[in-house]
Amino acid sequence: MSCPPKPVNKARHKGMPGVVRIGETIQGTGRMRTIILAMMTLLPLPAAAFTAQNGMTATQLNPTEIAVLHEVKRGDTDYWCAAGDFAQRALGLPGRTRLWRASPEPRGAGEGIVFTLDPARQAPGSGLSQFGAGPRDGSVSVAMAAGNYCRIIVPPWD
């Protein structure tokens, strides 16, 4: 034996906020969505982040400094790659532009590296060892950094 369903007291649900009967629609969702989207555009966003060809993230701190965010299991040349790629593709600088490391060595755990385009702001003794032609001032050309130090990281599931 089954019991008949209990009748719903519609008057009881009418004044309760948030209760919607089946078949009814919520009024004002389009307006609320517009308000939420408008509020999201006013939120502060990080400086224009750039993803380098090796997947690392670089941002411009000021006209002469580039910050590359920390990533685990990345070597120094990966950071140089991201800074050089940012200088060439995002800033549009010519390949012969020189790039220096501004962050002193050693880099602290969880810290990124700041690079500079201004030789006066370089951290002493923090350049890469180089072979071949070019100045021995700890700098690397942005073309060399992007062209020689960038290796594409392929995820293991590909």
Describe how the helices and strands are arranged:
Blueprint: H1 10-14, H2 29-42, E1 50-51, E2 57-62, E3 65-68, H3 76-90, E4 98-101, E5 113-116, E6 140-141, H4 142-149
Antiparallel strand pairs: 1-2, 2-3, 3-5, 4-5, 4-6
Provide key terms for this protein.
alpha+beta; elongated; 14% strand; 158 residues; 6-stranded antiparallel β-sheet; 4 helices
State Rg.
28 Å
Structural class: alpha+beta
Q: Which H/E pattern describes the elements?
A: HHEEEHEEEH
Q: What is the count of DSSP helices, taking H or I runs of 4+ residues?
A: 4
**Oligomer kind:** single chain
**Alpha carbon gap, first and last residue:** 59 Å
Using the alpha-carbon principal axes, give the shape: elongated
Strand order of the largest sheet: 1-2-3-5-4-6
Please summarize the sheet with the most strands.
6 strands, antiparallel
Number of structurally distinct domains: 2
Estimate the helix proportion, in percent: 25-40%
Low-confidence stretches: none
